[in-house]
From TrEMBL:
<dbReference type="Pfam" id="PF01032">
    <property type="entry name" value="FecCD"/>
</dbReference>
<dbReference type="GO" id="GO:0022857">
    <property type="term" value="F:transmembrane transporter activity"/>
</dbReference>
<feature type="transmembrane region" description="Helical">
    <location>
        <begin position="93"/>
        <end position="114"/>
    </location>
</feature>
<dbReference type="InterPro" id="IPR037294">
    <property type="entry name" value="ABC_BtuC-like"/>
</dbReference>
<protein>
    <submittedName>
        <fullName>ABC-type Fe3+-siderophore transport system permease component</fullName>
    </submittedName>
</protein>
<feature type="transmembrane region" description="Helical">
    <location>
        <begin position="278"/>
        <end position="296"/>
    </location>
</feature>
<comment type="similarity">
    <text>Belongs to the binding-protein-dependent transport system permease family. FecCD subfamily.</text>
</comment>
<keyword id="KW-0812">Transmembrane</keyword>
<keyword id="KW-0472">Membrane</keyword>
<feature type="transmembrane region" description="Helical">
    <location>
        <begin position="120"/>
        <end position="139"/>
    </location>
</feature>
<keyword id="KW-1133">Transmembrane helix</keyword>
<keyword id="KW-0813">Transport</keyword>
<dbReference type="GO" id="GO:0033214">
    <property type="term" value="P:siderophore-iron import into cell"/>
</dbReference>
<dbReference type="GO" id="GO:0005886">
    <property type="term" value="C:plasma membrane"/>
</dbReference>
<feature type="transmembrane region" description="Helical">
    <location>
        <begin position="192"/>
        <end position="214"/>
    </location>
</feature>
<keyword id="KW-1003">Cell membrane</keyword>
<feature type="transmembrane region" description="Helical">
    <location>
        <begin position="64"/>
        <end position="81"/>
    </location>
</feature>
């Protein structure tokens, strides 16, 4: 733990917020089309309809805001899942929630021809909730009850199954494949503010709720018997945490597709900085997750310019070595 005093944690958190704001500004300025900081300022103060001003306001700004919200949502969901399951490798991606939400979106588009953003979000929520329920039920089977290893295995099985089903649906409909292939790789490119505004209330509400659960989560992590002995309603707390995970992961997948590794690695960075106090882990995870995804999206524009690498590929490149390190080290919550 780097920060031990509350005052130092507040200072670091404020600094990270300023870093996030700087990253968002950089995301609006830099890209294939050359623009300057002055042009960005003019686009918002004296918009003249030029190509550069249109790109800044209608393409890059929504993209930066989407990356911020999605990164924060996935990182907070990962922190909640790791606390809920007591598994340092838990995340919406590893537990199959992203794959389940993705399958329901593709299935809804395939069978029901869903197109509206609101229906897209609800399809994603339904898939995330359905997958979470199956994983939890499968991980609870047997004499030992719910264990981290069984949850991980059940999540991996669900992720493989839903990914296969998604590919199966797409293989019989090439037109549908062309429409959702960019989404399946995980990307914030081309997302509109309207789509962001559709999912933002759910993600924002879940973030606010989980921030207020920090002290209760600290007791739960100490042990369910301890939490019950102190008068905590652990069943209700777990339900609220699971609901927040579904809202966060479901809304993130609905707008950006299945982006991996943020939910795994960011909570570990947060705990490295502030320790195991979830009153701090959750907000630090949200800010760090947003920073990582915004910066990864900026990097994705330059790898194979003039084309772009999907940001989901960038996060996988960044996250895989960290994931292997965490798995070998056996990180504790």
């Amino acid at each position: 733990m780097i920060c031990k005093k509350a005052s130092s944690k507040w200072i670091v958190l404020v600094c990270l917020i300023f870093i996030l704001l700087a990253a968002v500004c950089a995301s609006v300025v830099y890209g294939y089309t050359g623009t300057s900081w002055r042009q960005v300022y003019q686009a918002f103060t004296s918009f003249n309809g030029t190509n550069e001003h249109v790109i800044i306001k209608d393409v890059r700004l929504p993209r930066a805001l989407v990356a911020t919200v999605v990164g924060a949502s996935l990182a907070a969901a990962g922190a909640l899942m790791q606390a809920l399951t007591k598994n340092p490798l838990a995340s919406p991606g590893i537990f199959g929630i992203n794959a389940g939400a993705g399958f329901f979106i593709v299935a809804g588009s395939f069978f029901l021809h869903i197109q509206s953003p609101q229906a897209l979000v609800w399809s994603s929520f339904l898939g995330a909730a359905f997958t979470a329920a199956i994983v939890y039920a499968a991980g609870s089977l047997g004499r030992e009850g719910l264990t981290p290893i069984k949850l991980t295995l059940a999540g991996a099985a669900m992720a493989a199954m839903f990914s296969s089903l998604t590919q199966g649906l797409l293989s019989v409909n090439e037109l549908e494949l062309a429409q959702v292939l960019f989404w399946l790789t995980g990307s914030v490119q081309g997302r509109s503010l309207d789509l962001l505004m559709t999912m933002f209330p759910y993600a924002a509400a879940a973030l606010v709720i989980c921030f207020f659960l920090g002290q209760k989560i600290n007791l739960l992590v100490m042990g369910e018997d301890v939490a019950k002995g102190l008068g905590q309603k652990t069943g209700l707390l777990k339900f609220v945490m699971a609901l927040c995970v579904v809202m966060l992961a479901g809304s993130a997948v609905a707008i950006a597709g299945p982006i991996s590794f943020i939910g795994i690695i960011i909570p570990h960075f947060a705990r490295f900085v502030v320790g195991n106090d979830y009153r701090w882990v959750l907000p630090f995870s949200a800010v760090l997750g947003a920073i990582l995804l915004v910066c990864a999206d900026i990097g994705a524009r330059y790898i194979i310019m003039p084309q772009e690498v999907p940001v989901g590929v960038m996060t996988a490149i960044i996250g895989m070595p960290v994931f292997v390190y965490i798995a070998r080290r056996g990180a504790k919550l």
